[in-house]
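Regression test attached.
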Amino acid sequence: MLNPAAPPADRWLEAEALTATAFAPFGDVIDLDGAPPGRAGQDINQGHARRYDDLAALDLAGASGQARLSLFHARPRELPLRLRLLQRHPLGSQAFLPLSGRPWLVVVAPADARPDLARLRCFRVAPGQGVNYRAGVWHHPLIALQAPSDFLVIDRAGPGDNCDEFELAAPILWTRG
Amino acid sequence: MLNPAAPPADRWLEAEALTATAFAPFGDVIDLDGAPPGRAGQDINQGHARRYDDLAALDLAGASGQARLSLFHARPRELPLRLRLLQRHPLGSQAFLPLSGRPWLVVVAPADARPDLARLRCFRVAPGQGVNYRAGVWHHPLIALQAPSDFLVIDRAGPGDNCDEFELAAPILWTRG
């Protein structure tokens, strides 16, 4: 007879390298080191600067929303990490731009009404890479690594409930980065 | 008799240290190193992060506008610098967030219909400090120093003419930082 107290089998979510193509279903990869790949940019300021626009598809003005700039000071997580919670922001995008020059992790699932845990993905984010989650994309709270790390965040402020949470019970999911 | 070809007397614009109080008529100072001064912040992510909101008064959604995230790759200027041009963006704010860890300069004048050159100010910006120009504030194009420097820029995209320029003729103005 099965022991009714036995936990369900743990499941490992393997981390992948972050690329724009792999991340496209969830949003944008933002490269902060040098010119964005594949972008020509345009000269401005009488040739003293080159401008690369639309690093991310910011989507913040819907439902009477407005862009908001925040600083997140994140404590590092220890790996392996048990994944307990996913969040989503149905009314706007949310961009994370690392300031601390350390790698970090993102865990995402498609923007379904409930997160499909079979389609959960984990990405290793290089120092100097940011991401912008499309509205409604499920994501784990910030996973800083190694040391306390600061991130600029560009998301939506405004009326309405813009944060849904989903607790992961079974199967218990872990990632080791 | 005055020589009609003699240039008007040069004028030096002395640089000041950038503080939130001194910059208040023009916009926000954004401190990227550590917690914003005077802000308590709030714990989020089950205590794994502390969030500081509204680092700047982003004003981007007016006149059917939308937030835009850009990267400016700026060539350094040599000091002393002759000031030749001011710009303003009447329809939205514009934030500059340095990524390169080098000092830079801002030159601003109040948001009058024409820039009042008697009220022009120059501020020395420390590495790790950004600024957000309020809509309509006159400012010199980006003044990076020492080496090529990258800046994240958050400004407004949308319909309408959002860039006015004003050429500085006489008096000829210089700043030495």
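Expected vs. actual: identical. Confidence is low (pLDDT under 50) at residues 1-8 of chain B.
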